[in-house]
Amino acid sequence: MPEPSPPSPAAPVVLSPSAGGIAPSEAELARLGRIGTDWQRAIGDRASWQGALPVDPTLKVGVGQGEAAGRFEPVALADAAGQPVVEAEGPPAGLASRLRRVLIGPPLRSSAVVQERMRKLVALPILGSDALSSVAYGPEAMLAVLVLAGSAGLGLTFPVAAAIAVLMIAVGLSYRQTVRAYPRGGGSYIVATDNLGRGPGLVAAAGLITDYVLTVAVSTASGIAAITSAVPSLAPYALELGLVGIVALCAGNLRGVKQAGNLFAFPTYLFIAAVGLVIVVGLVDAASRGFAAEPHPPVVATEGVGLLLVLRAFSSGATAMTGIEAISDGVPAFRPPEWRNARTTLTAMVSALLFLFVGTVVLVQLEGVIPMADETVLSQLAHDTVGSGVLYWVVQISTAAVLLLAANTAFSDFPRLLFFLARDRNAPLAFLRMGDRLAFSNGILLLTAAAIALYVGFDGKTSRLIPLFAVGVFLAFTLSQSGMVVHWWRGREAGWRRSLAFNAVGAVLSAAVLLIAGLTKFTEGAWVVALLIPALVLVFSRVHRYYMGVRAAVALPDDEAAAAPRRGRIVPHRWGDGAPGDGAGGPGALAGAGSAAGERADAPDELALMTVVCLTTLDLPALRALAYAASLGQPVLAVHISPDEDDARRFAKRWAAWGDHLPLEIVSSPYRAVVAPLTRYLEALAAQRRDLTLTVVVPQQVAGRWWMQPLHDHVGRRLHRALRARPGIIVTIVPFHL
Amino acid sequence: MPEPSPPSPAAPVVLSPSAGGIAPSEAELARLGRIGTDWQRAIGDRASWQGALPVDPTLKVGVGQGEAAGRFEPVALADAAGQPVVEAEGPPAGLASRLRRVLIGPPLRSSAVVQERMRKLVALPILGSDALSSVAYGPEAMLAVLVLAGSAGLGLTFPVAAAIAVLMIAVGLSYRQTVRAYPRGGGSYIVATDNLGRGPGLVAAAGLITDYVLTVAVSTASGIAAITSAVPSLAPYALELGLVGIVALCAGNLRGVKQAGNLFAFPTYLFIAAVGLVIVVGLVDAASRGFAAEPHPPVVATEGVGLLLVLRAFSSGATAMTGIEAISDGVPAFRPPEWRNARTTLTAMVSALLFLFVGTVVLVQLEGVIPMADETVLSQLAHDTVGSGVLYWVVQISTAAVLLLAANTAFSDFPRLLFFLARDRNAPLAFLRMGDRLAFSNGILLLTAAAIALYVGFDGKTSRLIPLFAVGVFLAFTLSQSGMVVHWWRGREAGWRRSLAFNAVGAVLSAAVLLIAGLTKFTEGAWVVALLIPALVLVFSRVHRYYMGVRAAVALPDDEAAAAPRRGRIVPHRWGDGAPGDGAGGPGALAGAGSAAGERADAPDELALMTVVCLTTLDLPALRALAYAASLGQPVLAVHISPDEDDARRFAKRWAAWGDHLPLEIVSSPYRAVVAPLTRYLEALAAQRRDLTLTVVVPQQVAGRWWMQPLHDHVGRRLHRALRARPGIIVTIVPFHL
Questions:
Q1: Cross-chain Cβ contact B549/A600 below 8 Å
Q2: Is the Cβ–Cβ distance between A393 and A278 less than 8 Å?
Q3: Which residue of B has its CA nearest to A552?
Q4: Domains of chain B by range and CATH?
Q5: Average pLDDT, chain B
């Protein structure tokens, strides 16, 4: 069977709830028709089946929506009294779902998915918060490395910062090309898959996944540092505050926080303004004293100045660029002409980023500020320039807010990436599922768990998390921009040489940073990411292979495949018709007939069925299960499991009194177990006739309250678990409600 | 219906695996016969059913055991090739069960339950280890209170110890009466239930349960203290060592450690000999200096001498008596004449206990020893008398060993008590179940968990656990001996006055200790027990009431009860016969017919059945489920759940191509949920015909490996959980193995 190709990654990106579905091909419909022919023969006239339904399946009685509903029309639910069920009620109300309702709000209809279009002025803060907020930790991370070499190290601040600024420009120009080429949205996963193939795409996805998790962890750690810098008395609770922040983001995103433009625009613009003000005031101050740098506090050099130190400082400082790719990801969210507006916004964002980054670094030198354990560099700069009044608080609060927004960006990008991965069958299908609130709940929960693990594992310290950061980010950058190089080379549209050059420069520089970060930070934590990324790629590949196997297994067999096993089939035989049993021919006589014979999509008359009722006693639930089994109209065998002779005798006495209406076997269980011997007995029965489908009926007392459940044994459930892997055995639990 | 009375607690104590079973009464057999008559009418000749079995249920083919097996004979299991299954194999071998096999050994047959009879010399160490080992902590606990009042307090050691010695004699004499009256074993629960009623019996059981848990915790803590006294460098790992000890006891008991006489006798006798030697050497030493007491180290009095202090010291010291009741519990384990041998052993044990207790206390005074944080009193005494050589090590090792044995006693008594409670339906039936190794695994695991919680919660410190101990012990003593008073008063056998007097004194003194311990130790930890005991009694009562309710619910209805609802029944109607559906009469039309109508033990022809197949797509597993549903011979309805219009259209197209052989309804799920709308739809269907039994068939892909399971959704399982509480709906999962 040809493997159905996954939807092209270049196809329009629609996050609809049924995006996982595949339209039926002509061949598939033809196969369905052939299978249906067998049914026609087996069940004869359809009307006789349909007329026998004892209930009205449309539930339309009394609902009266006025519209004549065809057979394939969706039905509206009516309750027992015929009243239409109000759809907004959603799932049935248990305690858990009521709690969930309070926490994340009422469910939203699928039709509530809307594609908001953003103005540039709104898009800049929304898509730019991640990149711009990086200024809060990037320069500080760079300085924290340089200061290890004392004054001599700090003297290298400008050259290193200049290299980073060049990198920003190069990557920014490179992404401008991506925006033009992928007006439908060009995330690294899509661009890499599209141009370099599935493997590099998965590597890019793995890099992005670590990137998103680290964005949450680092932004939270850095945001909390902004708060504890301003309120040192909160410092002992920094870890707890960060956890509260991550959980709040999770809850907010499960609610499906709309990316309300104004709400998001305000802190980002405030942050740009506040830090800009700090820079300007600082420069004016410095100008008044002739740009003479104030001396920094005395520092002890613990390392010499060397290439390694410079490279480490460079790769730490490069984290100031994280998030720069967000706009190329979100092109479809712009108003038309999308790609042009996105490009303008990208240029504006990179300019703002450059201004903040360079301004901060210059001011650090002028004010003689060095990184300290209990106060962020940005907070020190604010203290030095605008004092400790209202303006200082504005700087700190807007910093914390914009970092929170950056973390929030990851909460919308991460589940979306998993959606794409799941759509291409590289990740569990559970990530395709939209929750009540149209949010990808599973992705959000996974991100929360991973971010908390990382945040707590690295003690909530920005400085300890930074070494992990650059690897994933620049891996994704490199693959995405290499993909673009291939894209231009293949397409050779107008101006392809220029675009290819920009992307090539971006790719080479990104690759250089990736290499530098991976090598110099390996022992400081980058090894975590270096192990994680191949592990993730392996998981994606295994999941993909598995789903492809499943797809082949459940697909309808085509003609040749269907014909082959059929030739060797057992003669169709229906047991319910009272045909004499020939099963006594001996166990294993038919064992060669193929173990999954009972699981083919045969017409109903080709299934050989038998019902086995498993009983531990002969009470009302047991008699009920017997009645149910007998009414299925197949041969019935009752099986009793006895721990000892006394018990077997008691059961036999009751059975005889009842009238011995069904064949009974008593299975002795010398080890007192119930499920294990039953499993073996049923397997031995099934082994006699491989084509047989056994329906195993087990009575089960169901307690009224959940806390009463442990007072009952759960033979049915355990039997179901034990027999799950066994083809041809179906376990049916017949509940008896107390 | 009359409530079947639980087996009398005075009945012979047999721990057989089917002890929970009740022999059928004549009335019950008659009821079964009447129900069978309905079946006779419904299914006609039994032979036609039996002949139709497609397999040989006896599995005897090829096994050839030579014996002609009757229909009610237990069958021996044969595998697919007709080879008999070796019974010793027990449960099927998964990784978990193989691991378990290594840890706790192969399963044992029920017939391996043997009642070992013990000689007195073996019984003394086995049943006496608990009481005798109490000497390791009882005197120390007493001194630890008295030392709070400095020298003046320590001066009261003798009077307090004398009171405890009197108490020991009184309780010992009292239990001699119990041994005579209850040759079958007279545990506190049984004696209290038997003579005072169910309520006091449950209170005694609750007291015993806290007693057993504390025995494990205190003995472990004290045993570890004996070890760390000898090897102070182990002190930092005391808590961990104790946990290892408890877990080792748990594992050993899950293996079903045989109480091998020699193994148990050795440490106990060694302990008696070693501590006896310490006492004798100490007394000889003291005699050589004219019994002049050595001065104790200077102590600072933090409290004055007062009645409260004395009472607290008394109730702490009384923990030296814990375990004294063990012999009266274990009378049936003695060789005949059981009660006389048990009585002799009891006297010997109390004598040894008195000797060790009084000797220790006297020696403490003579040697001027006071309790210290890092060395036990017993270790100090041993150092002072036999030095630090081999003899010292013998004392410490035998002390630790006998304390371990004492803890082990609780591991056999606790599950046995729960067995009795479960047999009388006061505790979950799971405690009736004997594990693979004939041990009551559930009770052992529960005790382990509770003991670990207590041990860790109180930091593994004997001194912190002691205040909790006396309450439960003396509560059980009081109730047991009060019960004996009632017993003698009722029976008035020969010599009843004397026995009654002994028991009355024992009861009054025990009650006094209970009161003293409860009041003086309340704030130090006794409140835990004071809360726990009523809570346990409440749980026992609720469990009992629940099981009695279940018993009434599942019992076969007698004539009047059965006749009453039958009169109002719906006309029997079998849907599988192709009778025209009259269900269109409207939803709710028959809603008054009683919600559990479908769950009565009716004959098969009185059940109205319908099958609903729930589909999300139309692939091979789905077609298989449809074929299975259709072959059940009942009316079939297919239901598809669609998240949106696109999906509904795709499904409808496939369905039409297949041939539209069955009625189909498409349920729209605007909130994308699958299970919730299906549940509502099915409930609405069922509400139309309350007498209908719906079989809900759900296809389920089953992955080959467990770790692949999360890659599939589990609609069937979730549906089953959601519909569990709903009468008349049976969920059948049709597996499709990949």
A1: no
A2: no
A3: B738
A4: 115-547 (1.20.1740.10), 572-737 (3.40.50.620)
A5: 78
- pLDDT band, residue A576 (cuts 50/70/90): very low
pLDDT for the residue numbered A243:
94
pLDDT band at A73 (very low <50, low <70, confident <90, very high): very low
Does ipTM top 0.90?
Answer: no
Chain A residues whose beta carbon lies within 8 Å of the beta carbon of residue B630: 39, 42-43, 604
Residue A149 CA: distances (Å) to CA of A152, A153, A157, A298: 6, 4, 11, 12
DSSP code, position B427: S
Contact B606 A587 (CB under 8 A): no
Residue B637 has pLDDT above 50, yes or no: yes
Q: Please say whether the beta carbons of B662 and B578 come within 8 A.
A: no
Whole-number Å distance between alpha carbons of A725 and B702:
7
Please provide the DSSP assignment of A329-369 as one string: HTGGGBPSSHHHHHHHHHHHHHHHHHHHHHHHHHHHHHHT-
Tokens 């009821």 found at:
B31
DSSP B477-538: HHHHHHHHHHHHHHH--TTHHHHHHHHHHHHHHHHHHHHHHHHHTGGGTHHHHHHHHHHHHH
Query: Got the DSSP string for A118-166?
Result: B-HHHHHHHHHHHHHHGGGTHHHHHHHHHGGGHHHHHTTHHHHHHHHHH
Residue A569 pLDDT greater than 50, yes or no: no
What's the pTM value of the predicted model, to 2 decimals? Answer: 0.69
Structure-block tokens of residue B118: 């013990």
Q: Do A624 and B650 touch (CB under 8 A)?
A: no
3-state class percentages of chain A: helix first, strand second, coil last, to nearest 5: 65, 5, 30
| Contact between A107 and B725 using a beta-carbon 8 Å cutoff | no
Residue with tokens 């013998």: B394
Question: Which of the pair, B375 or B720, is modelled with greater confidence?
Answer: B375
Q: Percentages helix, strand, coil for chain B, rounded to the nearest 5?
A: 65, 5, 30
Locus of tokens 């209290």: B192
Work out the minimum CA distance from B414 to partner chain A, whole angstroms: 19
Residue B152 predicted with pLDDT over 60? yes
The amino acid at residue B189 is Y
By C-alpha distance, the chain B residue nearest A61 is B586
Chain A residue with Cα closest to B720? A733
Tokens, residue A452: 């908390």
Contact B24 A657 (CB under 8 A): yes
What are the structure tokens assigned to A84, written together?
């239409």
Judge whether A91 is closer than 8 Å to chain B, CB to CB: yes
Going by their DSSP bridges, the two strands A608-615 and A692-702 should be labelled as parallel
Nearest to B658 among A33, A647, A650 (CB): A33
Contact state of B578 with A52 under an 8 Å Cβ cutoff: yes
- Assign residue B586 a region (left: φ > 0; alpha: ψ between -120 and 50; beta: otherwise): left
